[in-house]
Design a protein that fits this description.
The chain has 191 residues and is mostly helical. The chain contains 9 helices and no strands. Helix 4 packs across helix 5.
Length: 191
């Protein structure tokens, strides 16, 4: 069994390989993030209900899959992951606050009454994520790529897309939810 320092080193190496496009490393990294609950401490700083924590963990896995190419190894992978998870948790809190009166759960709004399946049990490589991003409706795709792929602020996204700030934020949120739903479809057993 690896010590904490050894595990951190292995995670850093996996993250560098995943950032370089290694699909196997990406899959192993996603498994490790979920299996060792690496994102949970950051998320628990903002969320308390188990279902909210789970939803934020799923969004974090999507964010890691879409942003791993930005990992440069300047810090530990766990430090980078902590920032990503905390940001996802904060965005989840803000989205929930805006949609408190809705009767449909936030993660189900793309698929109606169907629950979004757990993303953590699939092997997501960059090609799958990119394919699903490419299939998103144009405004959601552009907003999501600007936010996740180019790390633009919401203000920059609004200016680039020539829309109000609230619309830019909504498009990014809907893009994330749609991407999570599309990736979750990969879990459905084929018959």
């Amino acid at each position: 069994m690896a010590s904490g320092e050894e595990r951190s080193g292995l995670l850093d190496q996996l993250a560098m390989e995943a950032a370089g496009g290694d699909a196997g490393a990406s899959a192993t990294l996603a498994w490790a993030v979920r299996h060792f609950a690496l994102a949970t401490p950051a998320i628990r700083q903002y969320l308390f209900r188990p279902e909210d924590i789970d939803a934020a963990e799923q969004l974090t896995l999507v964010a890691v899959a879409t942003r791993i190419s930005s990992f440069r190894g300047d810090s530990r992978f766990t430090t980078w992951l902590h920032r990503v998870a905390a940001n996802e948790a904060k965005q989840y809190v803000r989205a929930e606050a805006r949609h408190r009166d809705r009767t449909v759960p936030l993660l189900a709004d793309v698929q109606g009454e169907h629950l979004v399946h757990r993303i953590s049990s699939i092997v997501v490589d960059r090609a799958v994520v990119q394919h699903e991003i490419d299939r998103l409706p144009e405004p959601l795709r552009r907003a999501l790529v600007l936010r996740e792929g180019q790390d633009r602020t919401y203000e920059e996204i609004a200016r680039i897309l020539e829309v109000p700030l609230g619309t830019a934020k909504t498009w990014v949120r809907r893009g994330r939810v749609a991407l999570a739903a599309r990736l979750a479809d990969q879990l459905r057993p084929t018959e």
